[in-house]
Design goal:
single chain; seven-stranded mixed β-barrel; mainly beta; 46% strand; Neuraminidase; 449 residues; 1 helix
């Protein structure tokens, strides 16, 4: 059985569903995934000022891909992108999540699955399809080797309330041995502007509001700061925002806007506004946030800084990296790592303390050199231009990634390979992989710890 035990218990103020999870390889031990980082399996990549070693991809999941004929979605179809995400428990276990529903907000049900690794990513337990979210969630560390998953998609507190929102949280206890779901356990209160609400085939109480918590959270000056984005009622573009919590992540309020819609770009058909974002704290204490504004090669990521703990932000500049779901990590030696893509998947590295200069590593090229089965390759192909894409070149990947530091200067990158259309046969699978990455300053990096 996938679920060993299900029981209900009464909690205040909500009801919690506790599930004991089985089928995971081994109890925590190899928190850095030592087998993944074996020198004999690593390949060195030449990057100015930095020695980079890439390991062998390890498959997390493989499943049949599918698409749904859905007239409400562009009058065509909706395909299931895995859009994977990755987080590390305080004692080193890993959790990978990925989407199981079609890539549209017009779903009759929203569901994502997760898998747990107890050995740093070398082996993965079975999939549990238990998260009622489509967009990737934020994880917050908790005591007893636990992680709390915040709801990415919120509901109006009551139908018609455009300023207060609720959603469930999931507490993964003891390295993922048990999951507790608390309905309406997270609140966003007193939002300054009326938020859009997205109608769908779901019951009215389950319509999503236009305040989305996704990206990551940091503890700054005794408060939690989380990244998100917001769509104001009646507007078509979004703004990248920071929310803050003083009670450990259960109640959130608006703190600041990193970037709103750019007047110079709003007339362009494929411009989305500022949305998916990741944030780190730099060596000097400043915050740096990187965010998406569109999908495709012409939509480079934007970046802004905060000198006052996230209350105000600099005017955004343009990074060489493109285009969706940026993931940022500042490693123990001070290197800033950024994973992103569409088209393709890239790892961008900066060895200067403010992320001024960047070097690119093509992850797809490395992946394709490593896999021996051609059905596991990530290929590109052409499709007809469509109104929701900024270009015709597409790759067999959602280009969403997860990126965590599992030991000093050792990273795990999570990414996917998806058919991007009806599967050709039963071997044309949607797959997720983790890739070990090791960073070491070179002789000319000038990097400071």
């Amino acid at each position: 059985m996938f679920i060993r035990k299900i029981h209900y218990r009464v909690m205040i103020p909500a009801v919690a569903l506790g599930i004991l999870l089985g089928g995971v390889a081994a109890k925590s031990g190899q928190t850095a995934g030592s087998g993944l980082f074996s020198p004999t399996s690593m390949q060195e990549v030449v990057v100015e000022g930095l020695r980079v070693r890439l390991g062998q991809p390890v498959q997390v999941t493989a499943q049949i891909g599918w698409e749904v004929g859905w007239p409400q979605f562009m009058g065509k179809h909706a395909f299931t992108h895995l859009t994977p995400a990755l987080a590390r428990f305080p004692q080193g276990e890993l959790i990978a999540t990925y989407t199981l529903d079609p890539d549209t907000q017009s779903n009759p049900v929203f569901v994502s699955g997760f898998q747990i690794s107890k050995d740093g990513g070398a082996r993965w337990g079975r999939r549990y399809s238990l998260l009622m979210q489509h967009i990737t969630v934020i994880f917050v560390p908790k005591p007893n080797d636990s992680l709390m998953a915040l709801p990415s998609e919120m509901f109006q507190e009551t139908p018609g309330d455009e300023h207060n929102f609720r959603g469930p949280y999931y507490l993964f206890e003891h390295g993922g041995d048990r999951m507790v779901m608390v309905p309406d356990g997270v609140r966003v209160v007193d939002w300054p502007w009326p938020a859009e609400v997205y109608s769908s085939p779901q019951p009215r109480d389950n319509w999503h509001a236009g305040v989305i918590l996704t990206g990551n959270a940091l503890s700054i000056n005794g408060k939690l700061l989380a990244t998100g984005y917001f769509q104001k009622k009646g507007e078509k573009t979004t703004s990248a925002v920071i929310l803050t919590s003083t009670d450990g992540g259960y109640t959130w309020r608006y703190l600041s806007t990193v970037a709103g819609p750019d007047p110079a770009l709003v007339s362009q058909r494929s411009y989305e506004g500022a949305n998916e974002m990741s944030m780190i704290q730099l060596a000097d204490g400043d915050l740096m946030a990187v965010f998406r504004v569109g999908s495709g090669r012409k939509w480079n990521l934007r970046r802004a800084y905060s000198h006052d703990g996230g209350r105000t932000w600099s005017k955004p500049d343009v990074l060489p990296a493109w285009s969706v779901d940026p993931q940022l990590v500042r490693t123990a030696n001070g290197t800033i790592a950024l994973s992103t893509g569409r088209p393709g998947i890239s790892l961008w590295l900066s060895t200067d303390p403010r992320g001024t200069n960047w070097k690119q590593i093509d992850i797809v090229a490395h992946h394709n050199r490593c896999v021996t089965d051609p059905r596991q390759r990530i290929n590109s192909f052409e499709i007809n231009p469509s109104p929701y894409l900024s270009e015709t070149a597409r790759w067999q990947t959602s280009s969403y990634t997860g990126l965590v530091e599992v030991a000093p200067n050792r990273l795990i990158l999570l990414y996917d390979r998806v058919p991007e259309g009806p599967p050709v046969d039963d071997h044309d699978l949607s797959r997720a992989y983790v890739l070990p990455i090791e960073l070491e300053p070179g002789s000319n990096s000038g990097n400071k710890p």
